[in-house]
Write a structure and sequence with these properties.
By secondary structure, this protein is α+β, with helices and mostly antiparallel strands. It is built from four helices and three strands; from the N terminus they run H-H-E-H-H-E-E.
């Protein structure tokens, strides 16, 4: 078993605590192409029927990255701010 395979097995065996962290991870897994923090916040706002700020999502993404459940897959241009933003994907 390679190191990558063992690492992936370990990550998959670690539980994701917290409802919002679990939901973000699920959204990233289902997207396939990855999502930005702002896109995740927009989806959660619609689902939860109240505004979810980007900073609420970015904190959860940091926690998920530190636990090995998500990674930075690249960058994209935010059309409303014209800034470069990170695209996230689930492991």
């Amino acid at each position: 078993m390679s190191l990558d395979t063992r690492l992936e097995s370990f990550i998959q065996s670690k539980p994701i605590n917290g409802r919002r962290r679990q939901r973000i991870h699920t959204l990233l897994k289902r997207s396939g192409i990855g999502l930005t923090c702002h896109e995740l916040a927009e989806i959660l706002t619609v689902e939860e029927k109240h505004e979810i700020q980007d900073h609420s999502v970015s904190g959860r993404l940091t926690e998920l990255r530190q636990s090995g459940h998500v990674y930075e897959a690249g960058t994209a241009k935010n059309v409303s701010t014209n800034r470069t933003v990170t695209v996230w994907k689930a492991n």
